[in-house]
Each structure stands twice: as C-alpha cells, then as structure tokens.
Amino acid sequence: MPKRLLLALLAFLPLRLHAQQTETQFLSGTDKDHTKKWKFYCTAGRNSGKWTTIPVPSNWELQGFGKYNYGHDKDPDRGKEKGLYKYEFKVPKNWEGKTVNIVFDGSMSDTEVKINGQSAGAMHQGSYYRFKYDITRLLKPGKTNLLEATVAKHSANESVNDAERRGDFWLFGGIFRPVFLEALPTTHINRVAVDAKADGSFKADVYTQGTAADEVVGQLYTLDGQKAGSEFRSAVAAGGAATRLQTTLSQAKLWTPESPNLYRVAFTLRKGGQPVHTVDKRIGFRTVELRERDGIYVNGAKIKFKGVNRHSFWPTSGRTTSKALSILDVNLMKDMNMNAVRMSHYPPDDHFLAACDSLGLMVLDEVAGWHGSYDTPTGTKLTEEMVRKDETHPSIVVWVNGNEGGHNFDLDPVLDRMDLQKRPVIHAWQVFRGTDTQHYINYDYGNGTHLQGHNVVFPTEFLHGLYDGGHGAGLEDYWEQMWAHPRSAGGFLWDFSDAGVVRTDKGGILDTDGNHGADGILGPYREKEGSYFTIKEVWSPVFFERREITPAFDGSFRVQNRFHYTNLNQCKFTWKLAQLPGPGSKAAPVTKTGPVAAPSVTPNGTYGTLKLDLPTDWQQHDVLYITAQDPAGREIYTWSWPIARPDAVAKQLIRVDGPSAARLTETDSLYTVAANGVELTFGRKSGVLRTVRNAKGVIPLTNGPVLAEGETAFEGLTQRQDGQNVVIEAKFAKQSRYQSLQWTVYPSGWVRMSAKYFPKDYDFALAGLSFTYPEKEVKGAQWRGDGPYRVWKDRIKGTNLGVWTKAYNNTSTGEMEGTRGPEYPEFKGYYSNFYWLTLQTTGQPFTVVCDQEDVYLRLFTPRFSATPYNTAPAFPNGSISFMHGITPIGTKSQKAENMGPMGKTNMYYDYSKDPSYAKEITLYFDFTGQQATPAAVGKR
Predict the structure, then answer these.
(1) Which of 254, 352, 415, 677 has the most CB atoms lying inside 10 A of its own CB?
(2) Residue by residue, what is the 3-state secondary structure of 169-220?
C-alpha cells in the first residue's frame, strides 16, 4: 500500500473505530445504468391498468408506460397519469435504536409514501428536490418491509405545474433519482452549512438532533487525508440552534474554475469526549462578491462567465442520468473553454455538482420556475430542500430564483436566510439586485439599459441555438463586446445538447418535439456540432492577435491572457509544421514539431509575446499549427496559419502541356473545345458551360458560371487560338455585373476560368459564381481549406487549415434521423479558405483548384427544417459555388443582422466602377480523370 494512502487511512481511523457514520442502503439503483426492479402499476396511457415491473430510478415513459408530453402541449389527459410503486426490503437487525430516514433524490411530481401500510408523512410536491421522511417507527428491523409510493406525473398543486410542468421542455413521470435509507444514531448531525473564504477563514453551522452530545469538533483534511490545520470545536448550541464553529487555514489553496482545489472537513459530534456521530463534506475555499455597478468577483478576480444552460437529460432515460454522464458533460464544457454552467431550470443531480467541484465549473443553481412560480408555502419548502442538499458545493457561486417570470419574491429571503455564504441571488430575465439578466438582447442593445445602463450585465440566456443557428454563430461579436465592457459579467448560451428523446411509443425514433428541443451545441448523444469548435476557439483563454505569415516572419505572435487566475507560463505550447498531401492522396501530412517556451503573461487581459524557434526550412511547409494546453493538460485549442498561399499551391498542381494543341469547332449554338481526351461545350447564346466529357464518359458539371446575385446581361462569346491553347471570352452589356469572363483550355486538358464582376450592390447577401452538379451522384469530397466543419459569415472560427475528406450526408443540423442522431460534420454548406476540391462521385471525380485567397467553397444547399425561424439563410442557385460573400445565420429568437457586425450584409464599396476594383476569381478544372499531384506538375 502506498505510504500516502496509508497515512490517509490512519488519519480517519480513530473516528471510524469509535464514531458512528451514517449508514446508507439503496432501495433503488444508483443511476440510469444501475437500476433495481420494483413492482409498478400505471393508471393511464400505455401498459396501464396492470401490475408489472419497472426499473428504478427511471422515467416511466422511457420504459413503455403512460404518454409522452412536451411542456407546451394541451393534452387534456395529462393530469391522469399516476404510477404506483411497491418494493419489499429488509434492514439490518442492528438498526434498532437508530434513526432511519427514507430519502428520495427526485420524484415527478406529487409523491405519497407508505411503509408497511402506514403513511410516512405528508405528500411531497415538487420534482427536482431531495426529500426525506423519518420512518423509524414504521420499520421492522430484521424483517421484510413494504415500501409503497404513489407518484402523480402532474401535481394537484397548480403552482407546481406552473413552475415545472408548463415549461419549454419534455415532461416525464416517475421516481427518476435514487431512493435510499440512511441510518443515524438518535443523536446526530442532520445538516452542515459551511463558508470557507479566500482569506482562509472558515466557519460552519452544524445542526444537530437529539440531546446526547455536548460538543462538535471539526478537522480539515486535504483530499489525500493529510490534516490541514488543527482541530476546532464548539459546545453544542442549546434549543436546537445551529452550532457555530470557526477556524482559519493559513495558505489555503483556493478553489477556482482554473484550479479547483478541494478539501474535506469532518465534523464529529461528541459526548464526554467520546464520538457520537461523524459527517464529512467536500469543500473549497473561495469568496464570491457581487459589486454594485461593477461586476461579479470570485477570490477578488472580476469574472467573465463563459457558460451554457444544461438540462439533466439523456435520450434513453429522460431526466435519469448518472455520475459517468455528469463527468462527460462537465468535461465537454471544459473542453469548450467554458468556466460556468447554469442549472436550467431546476437543481441537478448531486453527482453533477460534484463533477463541477472537482473539474472546475462555476454553477448557477436554480429554483424551478418557467413563466410561472411556486406558491410561497410550497416554494419555501422546496427552496430549503435545494439549499440543504447543495449548499456546501464550492462550485455554486450564484442562486437563481426562477426563470423568465417564474419568480416568487417571497423565496429570496429564504435563500438569504438559508445560505451561510450569502451568495448572490438573481432572477433570470429580470433586473434584480443590481444584475441585468435579460435574455436574447440584440447586439449593443440599450437606451439606458443593458450595456448602456448601470447594472451588472449578466444574461442567463443569450444566443438561443436552433439547428445550426446561434451558439457559435454571432458569439465572437458578442464575446468581444462582453470581454471589453467593464460591467459585463459574461453570459450563458442556450443550450448544451439537443433534447432528443427516444420514443418507445414510435419505434424508438428520436424526437425533439419539432424545433422545441433542437437547441443544442451537441446532439442528444453528445455529437459535436460545428458551434462546439467555434465556442472552443472564441472562448479560448489564450487569444492570438491576427497576423499573416510572410517570409519576414520571425516566429513571434502577440497573445493576450484571458485566464482569470493562470499565468500563461503555467500552460504548455507546441508548434507543428505540415506539408499537406495533394488531391487524391491518402497520405498523412509530413510534419515537424517542437516545443514553445511559454511566456510569463499575467491574467485578465495582459498581452505578451509567444516566440517560436522554428527550423530554417519552415517556409518549405504549407501550414503552421500551434497547440496550447492548460496546466491540467487539457487542450485549449489548436490554431492554424497558412504558409503556402493558394497561388503557390496552384502552380504545383496545374498541368498545361499535352500531346497536341487544344482545338475548337463550332455550330450555331455551341463552341466545342477538345484537348487530351477532354471535350467541353459552351453555349453561344447563354455563355455557360454546357457539357464536359472525357474518354471515360460524361462529367455532369454544367450551367456555369452563374452570378450568385446581379444582372448578367450576356451578349455573346468570342473565340481564338492562342498558341497551343483555345481561349473563349464572353461579352456583356454595360448594365452587367460581370466585367469579364474567360475560359482557357490547355493542351493537357486542364481548363482555366477567370472572371471579374461587381457584387449586386454596395451591401449584398451573396457574391460569387455557381455551377450545377447532380447531388445524387456525389459520394464525398476531398478538399484543402478550413475544415472539417462548415462555416457561416458570423461563424468563421472553429476550423483548421488542412486536407479533409468527408463522405456525403444530407444532415439537417439538429433534426433527428429516425432512431439516430444527426451525422456530423454536415457535408453541405460553405467552407472557408478554399485551395482545391476533388469531388468524389458515382462516376468520375474531377478537381477544381483556386489560386486566390479569401474564397469560400459552397457544396450544395443544406436541408433546412420546415420551421427554421432565422436559421435558413439564402444560398445561391446551382450546386457548387466559389464565393466571395456568404450569408450569416440567426438564432431561434434573433435575426442575424441584430447579432453584431458579422451578422450584417456583406459590404463592398466601389463608387468609380473602375474595373480594377472588381472582384476577381480564377479557377482551374481537371477533367482528365488523373489525379493532380505535385509530381505531375507542368509549366503554367
């Protein structure tokens, strides 16, 4: 046994030899993956009217009982569902003389409990709260006992339904969290509240029951069992009052989301020096302050919350989750560089809070309420239950009293009274106690309010994701504004994952209730959407100023430290240089890597220089990557910078020479050009490419180039022989947005297309050129550019430069595909920083090479929902496009143009109509059926 572990065990040994610990016996399973069968009877809906069995914990809809309901539905029968549970159990004979409680961690919604035919106490109303009954007098230790529970899916108390059952989320019934017994000595500790401050001061209120004790003794420990400081004690307070204990821990390691240091504190109730009962809690030292007209501070550092709203949810189990799922979700949030999470719209499982404690996420814990609130007697009881269960978690930094109008002001004094730490209390979507938490405010909105007001701006929901809109789309504009504004405390995205529930009544399909539940950054099974990576980059605490890599590059980058507590010299940086493969190659990039000396840059916005020591041949590579890791070894982000620009790459790929000169023939309607087995026809009356053919057959790329927007005013084609090449040029009328269009067919069979044009107006939605290709013949694509996820005008970040291969899919983001979640990354859409594309088809592949920067590749038009709100941007006609200007995407509640500068229309100023200011694009097409590898380079 390791020495450290032995010392840890010895540290607790005296207590465990003499003091009585709380004994726990689970009657149910512990989570969604570990359940126990109970007898069950459902009163309405599927499989009702008969006794059978059900796993506990669970939601009964997912087990084939009752009826699925979403909070908005008007089902007149939804109040009829009840579940009757029975479970037989034994308790040890030696529990005689102990106090025994039965504890329900969560039951939806009204719950009546009987033990051996007798009521355990008053009906509990409210779903998400831990409640318990003292059943000592009802038990038969050593014999078989019968638990009976009647659970009503909807409450007899309409205020409970208003707060919990009429929200914008799925409604379920059942005992969905664990049920267990706890056995305690008759004199015991029944509640502990702690306040461990950043200055090392510690106080605790210990609540006891019974009379056979005279003092409470406390001891702090590190998590490996080492004593931290000395014992501290106090005489038990008389009359049932709390016993106050205090101490100070010198040089306490503080809890922050960047360094979540934890301690354990053990409280021992003693009588005449002998231990009676011991309780220990995991705690952290930290101080939370809301400073009026300033901000929210944790340990003296002003915080910008980078948060997300999270439901307790899993597709196959509803609200029944697990410790493993909690750890997964917290890690996903940390991987997105988030530092906070809001519990929407109810308190979570205890294991989720434990994961936030240990991994480092600040938590907004919330009394349920959604446009409606609990009545005062019910709300008071439930608020007290929430605080008792959650109060010692250092991750909880703010309490939330209801959501979007679901605020009962009578509950604020309950939180004030109950919370020893006096954490801030807010009302989500309300100006309250110096915070402005309004939801879905437009960018830079306000006339004496929001960022133009005086309160701390703290939106508990902003950027309401729907399908592929919101979340990452618009975030960079909002975040840069939030980061710079002194009264902004950051905010929370809506929401973490799509609420796609498995419909056991519909063959196991995943259902988001249309657009109601398709709001996630992640799919229902935590599939990563494009916004996941955008958030990761935008919320990176290491911020790189934009810079170009030129031959004069000396390896230096100006970086900003956006951590709140961490110096950049605590992080790890590495560089990688890569030579990327060419079209058709399956080879991995050729790379060189090396470390970077992490500079000392202090937190909260300080700038410094990151200097790379690159090899002398760095310019022979295509791309530079830099990866940053935080002090725990978690990747912050990997950034990429192009070294080789598109014109240099194009020169390597394009082949000009061939066995004989290109030749042209003509008819009244067509020009036909042939070279090296490739034949192209151009419509003399339309000016567009009509057909492409080679020795193996037709390549059905047609009808291009067509302007995305604007008048073409085509007048005719001219042709000429230019040495070995054939050149075809278009003529346009004065009103045309085209300035020029030229095709050059080389003897190699390669084809060059060059065009100049002006966008439709000074501000415009789309600018570029399109071709048509039958989508049904596409199998996939390989391309060089930013990927693997698509982009929008207001969601450019979150990609890397590389060579990407992707199979075709027709995913509509957030829409469920039968029993499966969506397939990511999506195939169709816009891709930035385009170099070349090889389209993989059921017939022949072909390659397109671009020799200019700032061009977007468009691959077909995504399939959008029938009710997309603001999340179905305009796309150009045609199938495959090469764009200078693309569209942004909005959110469920906001148009893109209201979400910041990136959401505005594209702008291109040209008052002179001078052709030198026209947009220009040059593309090279390889229709030969041969792969355009650098080894096949010909002269240009």
Answers:
(1) 352
(2) CEECCEECCCEEEEEECCCEEEEEEEEECCCCEEEEEEEEECCCCCEEEEEE
Looking at the fold, whether 179 and 93 belong to one and the same domain comes out as: yes
Q: In this predicted structure, what is the pLDDT of residue 917?
A: 85
Residues 267 and 175 in one domain: no
Q: Is residue 651 part of a domain?
A: no
Residue 916: alpha-carbon gap to chain centroid: 44
d(CA 558, CA 578): 22
| Distance (Å, whole) CA 923 – CA 928 | 16
Domain boundary among 585, 611, 641: 641
Cβ 362 vs Cβ 385: under 8 Å: no
Domain end marker among 152, 184, 216: 184
Cα separation, 792 vs 890, whole angstroms: 10
**pLDDT, average across residues 413-417:** 98
> What tokens appear for 317 in the block?
């189990």
Given this model, what pLDDT does residue 19 score? Answer: 57
Cα 869 to Cα 892: distance, rounded to the nearest angstrom? 6
Tell me the C-alpha distance between 662 and 721, whole Å: 8
Structure confidence at residue 562 (pLDDT): 98
Cα distance between residue 698 and residue 690, in whole Å? 11
Residue range 492-520: average pLDDT? 96
This prediction has a pTM of 0.95
3-state secondary structure 78-102: HHHCEEEEEEEEECCHHHCCCEEEE
CATH code: domain of residue 913 = 2.70.98.10
625 and 675 together in one domain: no
Query: What tokens were used for 193?
Result: 């509240």
Domains of the chain: total:
5
352, 354, 349, 383: which is closest to 366 by C-alpha? 383
- Contacts for 74 with CB less than 8 Å, ≥ 6 apart: none
pLDDT greater than 90 at residue 916? no
Residue 414 lies in a domain: yes
Q: The tokens 């294991």 sit on which residue?
A: 351
Between CA 439 and CA 429 the distance in angstroms is 5
pLDDT at 292: 97
pLDDT (average), residues 732-748: 95
Show the domain range for 561.
542-641
- Compute the distance between CA of residue 115 and CA of residue 139 in angstroms, rounded to an integer: 7
Considering the domain architecture, whether residues 636 and 708 belong to the same structural domain is answered as no
Average pLDDT over residues 241-262: 97
Judge whether residue 3 has pLDDT over 50.
no
Burial zone of 62 (CB within 10 Å; 0-12 exposed, 13-18 middle, 19+ buried)? buried
Q: What are phi and psi of 192, to 5 degrees?
A: -130, 125
Looking at the DSSP bridge assignments, the partners of residue 228 are: 220
Residue 524: its pLDDT value, please? 96
Q: Residue 899 in contact with residue 442, Cβ under 8 Å? A: yes
Predicted local confidence at residue 14, as pLDDT:
39
Q: How far apart are the first and last CA of the chain?
A: 72
State both tokens at 910.
Answer: 């040209």
Written as one letter, the residue type at 615 is: P
- Six-digit token string for 917: 């200011």
Could you count the other beta carbons within 10 Å of the beta carbon of residue 159? Answer: 21
435-436 and 456-457 strand pairing:
parallel
939 pLDDT above the threshold of 80: no
Which positions ≥6 away from 552 have C-beta within 8 Å? none
Does 12 map to a domain?
no
251 pLDDT band, cuts 50/70/90, is: very high
* Residue 609 and residue 713 in one domain: no
- On whether both 440 and 511 belong to a single domain, the answer is yes
pLDDT at 931: 57
pLDDT in tens, 193-214: 999 999 999 999 999 999 889 9
Residues 126 and 250 in one domain: no
The beta strands (E) that lie in 872-918 are given as: 880-885, 906-907
What CATH number corresponds to the domain at position 238? Answer: 2.60.40.10
For residue 314, give the CATH number of its domain. Answer: 3.20.20.80
> 164 with 191, same domain?
no
